[in-house]
Automatic annotation (TrEMBL):
Keywords, sorted A to Z: Oxidoreductase
One GO cellular component term noted in the UniProt record for this chain: cytoplasm
KW Oxidoreductase (keyword) present: yes
Pfam families named in the record: AAA_33, Aldo_ket_red, PNK3P
Origin superkingdom: Bacteria
Gene Ontology MF term list: oxidoreductase activity
Record-annotated NADP-dependent oxidoreductase domain positions: 17-284
Gene3D superfamilies, sorted: HAD superfamily/HAD-like, NADP-dependent oxidoreductase domain, P-loop containing nucleotide triphosphate hydrolases
Species of provenance: Sorangium cellulosum (strain So ce56)
The protein's name: Oxidoreductase
Biological classification of the source: Bacteria, Pseudomonadati, Myxococcota, Polyangia, Polyangiales
Length: 636
């Protein structure tokens, strides 16, 4: 007889539908290794066969893979059926100085997997989840790297953690997604409301619910939760046990991953399995629904393009036949010039900045236009997520009109540059945070830097599986002005060219300036080769009041005097280091763009020299070559 399929997918049949998460056994406030091992053994002895860990479950990067090594030691010392235990680990987060910093780059993921194999003592990882999406790395790169590791046989199954429906759909184009891990509890039902639980059910894969009690910092909130209190009292159990029973009542594919640092906590979580959760308990939870809205449910289901829609071809148009065109991309991508092609052919334009209101208002206006017979419409909002695009697709399809997506694939650094150029053109100078904020109220095309970084962090690439008839990706190409031929050497100052006699990090007066050795001789060779010198510096001390602007300028003048070489211009950012509200603070490219424009510099002849990672990123944002101070001034 063929065994019934497991309700938990590749995890198999689990007699105890719970997993032990090792986060609290490996991070801040953790118990001793001996006590942690005892907690794991208690869980295994009570029938738990799922352990959840990560390479970043540690205190700092110096002890990366601590949680995985803990799993290995616990299993090596356990006398039970080790082959029945499923270990899930994760990659994509780092712990520099105890902070949580994403890194989804191809090289990091490969190094992590190699380290995890060694830490776990296995030749192949049973299941690896991408821990988070890294805003600095294209998700496609991370997914492709994971798929490559799987093809090489280093990983058996792959899944996603802290994710979205769009990212799951995107991942499915690279590998079979075998698990989704998200926070889910009575206190936080966001992942269910966003449809991820429903998606896992449809896909037949486990939904690994971490923080099932709301997380260590919030667990006491269960004691006063109005829905949980009567359930706990009725069954004579703790609020935590009642809350866990509420999750278990959802049934497969939910698998709560509880954390514990004491054996008593393990025993308490296991008692939740024996609570006879019934109709009265569910009635108490009626306002604590785990069900998504009808709109979310519709967006979870793979979209079906209505029959009879006109077929769209890539690259055609603008034309005379009905179509809705969604032009999307990051702020500063150049959507306005693209949309002009369509409005010139009679397409109606819908843009929230012009209409005011919300994206829902734009969709309503789209419906009105289509109903009135205006069946050629172009929309040019940013539309960075599947959710923001879904209503447009549904409205167009309801009126029998196909939808074309034109995605301007403008990298964020080029978008930064475009916004800076727009600022220089309109206002003649770079703007500080207060000016940006004030002018942005009237100028919708003046987004702050944070708006672009948020868009990039939340971006979900468009795909035909959303319901688009065609998705056309337009690569970014910057037009090169043939008059821009100058050679420029951009120089960071403090730590690169000069130090202080007093030992302070920055000079507060010109007499404290001391030139670092070998600077003049090395730079003179660049000047003789036709390069113009520029100083580019962050001077946030001005905004903090620790140094005056006059003192900063006097120190720059003294540096030039000691250098004895012509410096064409000194530019600096006087604004706060955090939060960044201007485009002139390195690594943002404002200062460099302004120099390029004023001095007609060619990017292929532009070199940035510095001593910090922000200098390297600044060069990357400009499209300039980067050299460290050690490289330009070797042995000095």
């Amino acid at each position: 007889m063929t065994p019934a399929p497991s309700p938990y997918g590749v995890l198999g049949h689990l007699d105890v539908p719970l997993g032990l998460g090792l986060l609290r056994l490996a991070t801040e406030g953790r118990p001793s290794e001996e006590d942690a091992t005892a907690v794991i053994h208690v869980a295994l002895d009570r029938g738990i066969r799922l352990l959840d860990t990560a390479d970043s479950y540690c205190l700092t990067d110096r002890e990366a893979h601590y949680g995985e090594r803990l799993v290995r030691k616990a299993l090596d010392a356990w006398s039970g059926p080790r082959d029945d235990v499923r270990v899930i680990t994760k990659a994509g987060l780092t712990r520099p100085k105890g902070r949580w910093v994403p890194d989804g780059s191809r090289d990091h993921l490969r190094r992590t997997v190699e380290g995890s194999l060694k830490a776990l003592g296995v030749s192949r990882i049973f299941m690896l989840l991408l821990h988070v999406t890294d805003p600095k790395t294209p998700l496609e790169e991370s997914l492709a790297a994971l798929a490559e590791l799987q093809r090489e046989g280093l990983v058996e199954h792959l899944g996603l953690s802290n994710t979205s429906i769009a990212e799951v759909r995107q991942a499915q184009r690279h590998f079979p997604v075998r698990a989704i891990q998200e926070e889910l509890s009575v206190l936080d039902r966001g992942s269910a409301a966003r449809g991820l639980f429903e998606l896992a059910k449809q896909m037949g894969i486990p939904f690994l619910a971490h923080r099932p009690l709301g997380g260590h910092a919030k667990v006491d909130n269960l004691l006063k939760n109005r829905a949980i209190k009567p359930i706990a009292a009725r069954h004579s159990v703790t609020s935590q046990e009642a809350a866990l029973a509420a999750l278990l009542d959802l049934g497969p594919p939910v698998l709560p991953l509880f954390g514990a640092t004491r054996r008593e906590s393990v025993e308490s979580c296991l008692r939740a399995l024996r609570i006879p959760f019934g109709a009265r308990d569910r009635a108490d939870l009626s306002k604590t629904s785990f069900a998504p809205t009808a709109d979310v449910l519709a967006s979870v289901a793979p979209p079906v393009i209505p029959a009879g829609l006109r077929k769209l071809e890539p690259g055609e148009g603008p034309g005379d036949a009905p179509e809705v065109v969604v032009i999307m991309g990051i702020q500063g991508a150049g959507k306005s010039s693209e949309v002009a092609r369509y409005t010139a052919k009679g397409y109606a334009r819908l843009n929230r900045d012009e209409l005011g209101g919300t994206l829902d208002g734009v969709v309503k206006k789209l419906g009105e236009l289509l109903s009135s017979g205006q069946t050629r419409v172009v929309l040019d909002n940013t539309y960075g997520t599947r959710a923001s695009r879904y209503a447009v697709l549904r409205m167009a399809h309801a009126h029998g009109v196909p939808v074309r997506c034109r995605y301007l694939a403008t990298p964020i650094n080029e978008a930064y540059a475009n916004v800076v150029l727009r600022v220089l053109e309109r206002y003649g100078k770079l703007l500080g945070p207060e000016d940006m904020k004030a002018l942005g109220k009237e100028d919708p095309n003046l987004p702050p830097p944070q708006a672009l970084s948020r868009w990039a962090a939340n971006f979900e690439a468009p795909h035909v599986d959303e319901g688009f008839s065609v998705v056309e990706e337009i690569p970014f190409a910057r037009r090169v002005d043939p008059l821009f031929t100058g050679k420029g050497l951009l120089l960071d100052v403090d730590g690169t060219l000069r130090t202080t006699k007093s030992g302070e990090i920055y000079p507060r007066d010109p007499d404290d300036v001391e030139l670092l050795p070998g600077r003049r001789a090395a730079l003179e060779r660049w000047v003789n080769d036709g390069y113009t010198l520029f100083f580019v510096s962050n001077q946030s001390g001005i905004s903090k009041g620790s140094v005056t602007e006059e003192a900063v300028m006097a120190a720059f003048s003294r540096t030039i005097e000691l250098l004895g070489l012509p410096v064409a211009e000194v530019v600096y950012c006087p604004h706060p280091a955090f939060p960044v509200g201007c485009f002139c603070r390195k690594p943002l490219p404002g200062l460099g763009i302004s120099l390029i424009q004023r001095h007609k510099l060619a990017r292929e002849h532009l070199v940035m020299v510095g001593d910090m990672e922000s200098d390297r990123e600044f060069a990357r944002a400009l499209g300039a070559k980067y050299m460290t101070a050690e490289e330009l001034f070797p042995g000095k």
